[in-house]
Amino acid sequence: MGSLYRTALVIAIIGAVNWGLIGFFQFDLVATLFGGTDSALSRIIYGIVGIAGLVCIPLLAKPLAEAEASNASTNSTYRGANYQTEFAEEDEFSDTNFNSNPNYQNNNNSAYKQNNNQNKSDR
């Protein structure tokens, strides 16, 4: 956020506090400090607060645009991720070639028997 927007936001907040004081307590702080509502200085302060409010209007849409931009970049990073859950596609192992192992025996539970026999021979 640029310094212009920060300054405008601070002035708009001060104006909002002044309006809150007027609404709740019927006390106009700007008029009290600067010589009444009809004085030139008070009218300048009111004008500056009004301009600051207008400058702050683009700030209403800026956080939304930043949030959408960050979501878009986050979503593009993780697009197509496969976490192997029940909702994701799982890899298919039917095309795995076990015949590349020369010690593979082609009968039921042969991979288990092969590992089991190998463990017995290691002992």
UniProtKB/TrEMBL annotation:
Residues 90-123 are annotated as: Disordered. It comes from the Bacteria. This is DUF378 domain-containing protein. Residues 97-123 have a biased composition (Low complexity). The chain crosses the membrane at residues 7-34, 40-61. Keywords: Membrane, Transmembrane, Transmembrane helix. InterPro entries: DUF378 (IPR007211).
